[in-house]
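Listing S7. Sequence submitted for prediction.
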Amino acid sequence: MRHLISRTVAAAIAGVASPAAADVTASSDAGFASHNEVLVAAEPQVAWEALVRPGSWWNGEHTYSGDSDNMRIEATPGGCFCEVIPASSGEIEHMRVIYVVPGSTLRMSGGLGPLQSEAVTGVLTVTLKPEGEMTRISFDYVVGGYMRMPMAQMAPLVDQVLREQLLRLATRLGTVMDPAPRRAP
């Protein structure tokens, strides 16, 4: 993921405002937790169908191939959140699907981006909850293990990238609303 940290720091310094609630909810030497959520004007099933097609919303700058169209999510236990890298005839597994309730919950295990080269494990839980005619989409990512970079420094960078991806998914779905402040359960 080319220049992931420098781009993330630059975006944070620019103070990009967003209609999403985001927070590093916990951080220690052993790990961190990140919570991001947004409210969209789409039904959960419509949001689900977009979610499992990351090529339509993931930022290509946060891929190994430079093109999010090379990404896929196989939304079944054991399925792969993977990316083909045509230039090298390679492929990368970003995460492994471990829990699926279509239209409601997708849970995957793995280290995203630079976390993949560290001795950490991460679990990303994506939830879609109906709220009237809208859907609240939450990304909760919990990471633990050993890293060469202090967890407290990595946590806000990872949180920023996840927030960006969630906002791109929300924008793909249409109207994005400011969510009411809520903490992860």
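Caption to Listing S7: primary sequence and predicted structure tokens for the chain studied. Residues 20-177 form a domain with the Alpha-D-Glucose-1,6-Bisphosphate; Chain A, domain 4 fold (CATH 3.30.530.20). The first helix runs from residue 4 to 14.
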